[in-house]
Amino acid sequence: MTIRKFLAGAAAAALATGAFAIPAGAQSADQRVAALEKELATLRQTASVAQDRAKVENLFSRYMYLHNAFRDTDIIPLWAKKGTPDVRAQYSNLGVYTDWDKIISYHQGRPAPRGKLIMHFVTTPMIEIAGDGQTAKGLWIVNGIESGLVEPENAKNMPAWMFEKEMVNGKKVWMHNVYLKYGVDFIKQDGEWKIWHFHCFEVARAPYSMGWIPFAAAAQDDAFNVDLMYVGEDGKPVFMPPVDGPATVMNNTYRTDSAQRLEARPPEPYRTFSETFAY
């Protein structure tokens, strides 16, 4: 049975039983069926968008759960497949990474040293699904902690602002509060949502004994702060690889000599990706 026949039958049955009354001069049965079909299509579209939004939010939350647990090999399948045009990632104003292998290398080498704890939690999602259903945009505020232990020998070449005064088990201690935004563009591949453009906007950082304003005053122009990728095995610093190109969307990281502005830009409704901006 076609949907038109089903709706026609339902409309006729409703008329016959008096389920709804049609005043004189009202629409014909065919017109009412056409209106119901249009309403059904709208409801289907609304349901599809809601389902896609939930899947995108779950995808980013899954990324963060895995990131917090150092399960980076499980993050790789969340990314768009190799060969996807325009895939990229950005972590600072140094530039962007557009080479898929270089982007994924972050997830292939990130260790989980003893005594290290990272806990980022995501809030305030703003998600827009494209009208054509093929891409999506999401923006989140993220707060959390990053911490670990460093052998004194490895700490010698690291800045003093990195560490607390106290030592634990003969090791230097770093404990930072972090405040971030994540702007992510997603693409649908083989019916599944994947990360396409990934931008981490660091807003501020605050070592426990320092706070974010004194930290910014000490570290805002320190190349170590900008270029540090993570603290690896035995507390050895690992730096970002050379970028593939210049940054076009800038991080507005807190500085003592500048004002805050709206970065990153919140997503807005759009029909297809060519009509919107990229993170």
Entry summary:
The chain has 279 residues and is an alpha+beta fold. It is 29% helix and 29% strand.
Q: How would you describe this protein?
A:
The protein is of the alpha+beta class and 279 residues long. Helix content is 29%, strand content 29%. The chain has six helices and nine strands, in the order ααββαββαβββααββ. It has helices at 3-17, 29-68, 100-109, 152-155, 212-219, 223-227, and strands at 88-92, 95-97, 117-129, 135-150, 167-168, 171-189, 192-207, 228-231, 237-239. Strands 1, 2, 3, 4, 5, 6 and 7 form a seven-stranded mixed β-sheet that branches. α1 (3-17) crosses α2 (29-68). The radius of gyration is 26 Å and the shape is elongated. The two termini are 46 Å apart. Mean pLDDT is 90; it is low at 10-15.
Sequence-ordered SSE layout with sheet pairings:
Blueprint: H1 3-17, H2 29-68, E1 88-92, E2 95-97, H3 100-109, E3 117-129, E4 135-150, H4 152-155, E5 167-168, E6 171-189, E7 192-207, H5 212-219, H6 223-227, E8 228-231, E9 237-239
Parallel strand pairs: 1-7
Antiparallel strand pairs: 1-2, 3-4, 4-6, 5-6, 6-7, 8-9
Helix pairs in contact: 1-2
